């Protein structure tokens, strides 16, 4: 099998940014009809290698051949025309255009130079149907959740006649069922002889779909392996460059027993709170030291609940109470005054200010709460930022770097740090481990456990049910924008029961 | 394992140090004020070639005189307008009404002074000036309200006052040009304090105040955050409405002070022509100074350099005797070159040529 010629070869690729060597002599080979996983910690250089491949960045060293011919793309458009179709890590679609336009932008079917809108809608619907996504293709893309946007970006990449398909963390906010669907499509493409480059931090996914993988560490290639010949443990060791013992004990971070919780008056409670078109009226209480997980499929209303509790959207009925006292949130800042923090799922549009530095992004919420006239003293900023850069292992550990220059996973950590320093009483975490590597993910899970032990109430949202189950004391199950049931996370609760509750709408 | 860790640490250390320390020169070039400052110096030196005494500054009757001083003095109004514009642009907005505000400010001040029994009374002039600036603050509040509260696009919201403001100025002056004969008022533009022209002192003081307030408080950072990502800023709990209103008020007040200077220079108020097209020069100064029209990061130092650059360019056009019919064209060409030189994409094109050339050589 390895006798076949690779369709794409990158050899000795070097790329440096001011102050950082992102890639140093990296080799990569992609074979037709194979799924190739690109693995590495946050900041290892995966996205950079992909951007070099597609001409989004110009490399300083090395060469690239596609189908035996040397190539050097001036930009992603050229790469696409040469048969390399890419979904970037940070979704780069136009939120104010319709879904159909986003899927087919630049390739809209035309007649006599005019766009045929109906044909365009049909084509877009077909492409999305391949991923089993049925949404109104005429709606604005920005109105959809990040998971839907991710699927739209993938659909867009699938529409091209490609030799190579590149997917940079396409599954970071997808549920199991969408991942299955994506994998089904990927297997089909594989059988057509397309080479697929796939980045993810989910090891299970790698072992499910990838035939071969390349591991990067600190901008260097550690090696190329056949998936079948490398155990998960060896893979992780290759990625982080040390033995894995440390990781094991984090996996089993001891969550406090449900029985040990004192459930008096909830820190924050919602009584019949709802918003037309977003979420049906729900009631939910989150107590001191309690982690409440939200479980549900894509579009089931998880983020909507978070936004209502944070005052990011206004509820049109029901009553929110803090410590039993009814409150009305007129916006995020009034929720923040009551000690509520919300770490949103879409770090790019809702979270970070990309051109500000790491330090500025971290102190932003704290500063906003104090108002502009009372700046956080610089010494205190440096101290806080230094502490969290270290605690979360944000790399490079230079607080004065623009956040834009950080890798995706490190940006996510910056966002977490922003809310951690506000020391909230209720922390709402919407996909906090999105795009974060195995080691850091375990670290963040441990952090959640620690925080709740310290008395913080946590609302934890994740597409990854295992994670929800591991951390939560109580799991609220959502389906079709309705909170259908609450399950105490005692011994009897396992993944199957949660899934069953999701599937049946709570009638277990 | 310890070895691997140590090596990783080394790599990280090397990775973050090596290129940075490599040469100070490229750091200097990379500084975002490098190109505007370089262009400014180039223009000044160019002037020296045409006018030998260009750099000469002399002390006459305890007053500083010279071509450079003239540039500073004549550039003061533009610098002030651009200063306020910087704040507005940082929010991701734009203020087209500054020219009209310049006219209104001068008009109200002159109208008030012309009503005084004794036009030389300092108290009366101060009241007139205060009234004019108060009105400007009100106009800024109006702009800020339309943009921050009603949510109208800045370019449209300020277009309203850009058009209507000229009418208001006409109304105040009664459609005439109001001439005043008031030594205290005249001093705003032509006086000297400790040998330095008053407008230069006023401009420097306002620049210093704005720079201090934005950078010593958190105002600048929050403004940049709102301009950089309004949605994320809201979710971080920033009250952007308040910041936006303050920016527009500050902009209008700066334009108001500039308006006083403009009308004081000629001791009269012309509702039609005062501050005409100054909004464009101001926007240009801000952009040359490295502040993006998309909002976000702003640089007050950059704006100051940008304003000086534009004023120097105007002066150059006179001193090297460019025929009047091509002055606008000349200015346009210089501006285009300037913007190109500053555009990272354009520079990268040339930077990229180099390594390939080396390879083929
Ligand atoms: N535009 C840039 N300017 C400066 N440094 C950059 C830039 N882009 C990436 N880097 C740096 O290059 C390194 C590699 O980043 P890259 O985004 O490739 O990581 P990654 O492997 O994709 O990580 P993640 O899993 O977090 O997405 C990081 O140290 C990052 O800080
Ligand atoms: Mg990445």
From TrEMBL, chain A:
Keyword tags: ATP-binding, Nucleotide-binding, Repeat, Transport
UniProt cross-references to InterPro entries, sorted A to Z: AAA+_ATPase, ABC_carbohydrate_import_ATPase, ABC_transporter-like_ATP-bd, ABC_transporter-like_CS, P-loop_NTPase
Pfam families reported for this sequence: ABC_tran (PF00005)
GO molecular function: ATP binding
ABC transporter domain sequence ranges: 8-243, 262-505
Name of the protein this chain belongs to: Sugar ABC transporter ATP-binding protein
């Amino acid at each position: 099998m390895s006798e076949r010629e690779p369709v794409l070869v990158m050899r000795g690729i070097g790329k440096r940014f001011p102050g950082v060597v992102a890639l140093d002599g990296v080799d990569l080979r992609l074979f037709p009809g194979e799924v190739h996983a690109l693995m590495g910690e946050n900041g290892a250089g995966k996205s950079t290698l992909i951007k070099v491949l597609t001409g989004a960045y110009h490399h300083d060293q090395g060469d690239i051949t596609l189908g035996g011919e040397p190539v050097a793309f001036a930009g992603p458009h050229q790469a696409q025309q040469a048969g390399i179709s890419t979904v970037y890590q940070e979704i780069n679609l136009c939120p104010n255009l319709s879904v159909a336009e986003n899927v087919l932008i630049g390739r809209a079917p035309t007649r006599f130079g005019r766009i045929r809108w109906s044909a365009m809608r049909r084509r877009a619907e077909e492409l999305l149907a391949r991923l089993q996504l049925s949404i109104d293709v005429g709606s604005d893309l920005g109105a959809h959740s990040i998971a839907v946007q991710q699927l739209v970006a993938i659909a867009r990449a699938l529409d091209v006649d490609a030799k190579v398909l590149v997917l940079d963390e396409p599954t970071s906010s997808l549920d199991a069922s969408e991942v299955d669907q994506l994998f089904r499509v990927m297997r089909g493409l594989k059988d057509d002889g397309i080479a697929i480059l796939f980045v993810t931090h989910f090891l299970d996914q790698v072992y499910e779909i990838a035939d071969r993988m390349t591991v990067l560490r600190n901008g260097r290639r550690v090696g190329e392996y056949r998936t079948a010949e490398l155990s998960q443990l060896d893979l992780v060791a290759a990625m982080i460059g040390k033995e894995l013992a440390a990781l094991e004990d984090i996996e089993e971070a001891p969550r406090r027993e449900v029985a040990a919780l004192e459930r008096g008056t909830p820190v924050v409670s919602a009584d019949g709170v709802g918003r037309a078109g977003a979420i049906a009226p729900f009631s939910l209480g989150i107590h001191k030291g309690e982690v409440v997980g939200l479980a549900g499929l894509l579009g089931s209303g998880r983020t909507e609940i978070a936004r209502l509790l944070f005052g990011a959207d206004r509820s049109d009925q029901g009553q929110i109470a803090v410590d039993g006292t009814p409150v009305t949130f007129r916006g995020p800042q009034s929720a923040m005054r009551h000690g509520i923090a919300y770490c949103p799922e879409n770090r790019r549009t809702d979270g970070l200010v990309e051109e500000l530095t790491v330090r500025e992004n971290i102190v932003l919420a704290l500063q906003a709460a104090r108002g502009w006239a009372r700046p956080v003293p610089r010494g205190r900023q440096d101290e806080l930022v230094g502490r969290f850069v270290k605690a979360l292992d944000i790399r490079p550990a230079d607080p004065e770097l623009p956040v834009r220059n950080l890798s995706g996973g490190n940006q996510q950590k910056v966002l977490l740090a922003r809310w951690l320093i506000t020391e909230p009483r209720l922390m709402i975490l919407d996909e906090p481990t999105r795009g974060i590597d195995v080691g850091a993910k375990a670290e963040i899970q441990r952090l959640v456990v620690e925080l709740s032990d310290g008395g913080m109430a946590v609302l934890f949202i994740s597409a990854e049910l295992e994670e929800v189950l591991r951390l939560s004391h109580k799991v609220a199950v959502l389906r079709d924008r309705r909170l259908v049931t609450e399950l105490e996370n005692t011994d009897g609760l396992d993944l199957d029961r949660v899934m069953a509750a999701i599937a049946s709408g709570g009638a277990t | 394992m310890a070895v691997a860790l140590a090596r990783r640490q080394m790599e990280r250390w090397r990775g973050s140090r090596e290129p940075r320390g490599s040469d100070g020169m490229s750091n200097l070039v990379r500084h975002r004020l490098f190109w505007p400052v370089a262009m400014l110096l180039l223009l000044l030196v160019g002037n020296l070639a045409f006018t030998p005494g260009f750099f000469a500054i002399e002390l006459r009757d305890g007053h500083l005189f010279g071509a450079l001083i003239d540039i500073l003095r004549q550039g003061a109004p533009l610098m002030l307008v651009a200063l306020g514009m910087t704040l507005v642009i940082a929010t991701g907005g734009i203020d087209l009404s500054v020219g009209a505000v310049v006219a209104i400010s001068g008009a109200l001040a002159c109208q008030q002074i012309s009503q005084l029994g004794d036009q030389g009374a300092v108290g009366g002039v101060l009241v007139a000036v205060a009234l004019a600036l108060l009105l400007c603050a009100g106009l800024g509040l109006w702009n800020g309200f339309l943009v921050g509260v009603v949510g109208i696009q800045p370019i449209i919201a300020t277009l309203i006052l850009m058009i209507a403001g000229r009418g208001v100025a006409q109304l105040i002056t009664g459609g005439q040009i109001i001439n005043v004969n008031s030594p205290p008022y005249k001093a705003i533009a032509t006086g000297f304090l400790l040998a330095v022209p008053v407008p230069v002192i006023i401009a420097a003081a306002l620049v210093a105040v704005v720079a201090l307030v934005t950078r010593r408080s958190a105002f600048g950072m929050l403004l940049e955050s709102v301009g950089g990502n309004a949605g994320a800023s809201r979710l971080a709990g920033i009250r952007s409405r308040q910041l936006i209103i303050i920016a527009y008020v500050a902009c209008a007040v700066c334009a108001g002070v500039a308006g006083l200077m403009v009308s004081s220079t000629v001791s009269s108020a012309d509702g039609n022509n005062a501050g005409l097209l100054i909004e464009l020069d101001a926007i240009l100064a801000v952009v040359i100074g490295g502040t993006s029209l998309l909002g976000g990061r702003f640089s007050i130092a950059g704006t100051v350099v940008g304003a000086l650059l534009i004023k120097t360019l105007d002066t150059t056009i006179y001193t090297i005797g460019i025929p009047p019919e091509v002055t606008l064209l000349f200015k346009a060409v210089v501006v285009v070159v300037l913007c190109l030189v500053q555009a990272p994409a354009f520079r990268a094109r040339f930077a990229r040529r180099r390594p390939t050339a080396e390879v083929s050589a």
